[in-house]
Amino acid sequence: MLLNHLLQHYKVILGSQSPRRKQLLSSMDIEFEQRVKDVNEDILPIWETKEVAQKLAERKALAQQQELKENDTDFLNEILITSDTIVVIEDKILNKPQNIIEAREMLRLLSGKKHLVITGVCICTKSKLYSFLDETEVFFKELSQNEIDYYIQKYKPFDKAGSYGAQEWLGMIGVERINGSYFNVMGLPVQKLYEEWVNFLT
């Protein structure tokens, strides 16, 4: 079943300010608007590392769920997509770097090693909520200090978990290979989202 056909009775809301998620959802030929609410992103100690992104995606959805419109004469049913992406290496979560020093430390840690990129996604209507996660293995070459400093200075990756964007210069020259979805590394596993979204609506 074609997702676009299933969505003809819905107004799609993207609960994210990420320009990469906006780009990827647009590339799926889906019309949507962005609507974001501030959410506490503190990680609860009872959460397993691999479920953090999924739990945060659910929290973001729950923050807006009661505001979604359903069966109103003036509105289509609204369906919300929220997401969160984390970078994990040696069971340690790398968040967004706060400054140049943190960015350098993260990229040194990733250099020459394998890490995981895990994205949690939540699909939500006013009466129903479903979430899933996807993970990708990313293998970095050994990065020189000059390469790290050049990337940080030019691209300023302070809005990116793990301090890098796979679609940017460092991803192009530093990522040797990946196992899993490349788009997941960008922040939205669009192939899996498509399949899960169709299942959600049928």
Q: What is the number of helices?
A: 8
CATH domain class? Alpha Beta
**Which secondary-structure class do the elements indicate?**
alpha/beta
Q: Give the CATH topology.
A: Maf protein
Q: What string, H for helix and E for strand, traces the elements in order?
A: HEHEHEEHEEHHEHH
**What count of structural domains?**
1
Strand content: 25-35%
Helix content: 25-40%
Strand tally is 7
The average pLDDT value, as a whole number, equals 95
Which radius of gyration do the C-alpha atoms yield? 18 Å
Are there runs of 5+ residues with pLDDT below 50, and where? none
Shape label: elongated
Describe the protein.
It contains eight helices and seven strands, in the order H-E-H-E-H-E-E-H-E-E-H-H-E-H-H. The model has no long low-confidence stretch (mean pLDDT 95). Strands 1, 2, 3, 4, 5, 6 and 7 form a seven-stranded mixed sheet that branches. The protein has one domain (3-201): Alpha-Beta Complex (Maf protein). The radius of gyration is 18 Å and the shape is elongated. The protein has 202 residues and is an alpha/beta fold. The longest helix has 14 residues, at 52-65. Helix 4 crosses helix 5 (145-155). Helix content is 36%, strand content 26%.
Question: How are the elements arranged and paired?
Answer:
Layout: H1 3-6, E1 10-14, H2 19-27, E2 32-34, H3 52-65, E3 77-89, E4 92-94, H4 100-110, E5 114-124, E6 129-140, H5 145-155, H6 169-174, E7 175-179, H7 182-186, H8 190-201
Parallel strand pairs: 1-2, 1-3
Antiparallel strand pairs: 3-4, 3-5, 5-6, 6-7
Helix pairs in contact: 4-5
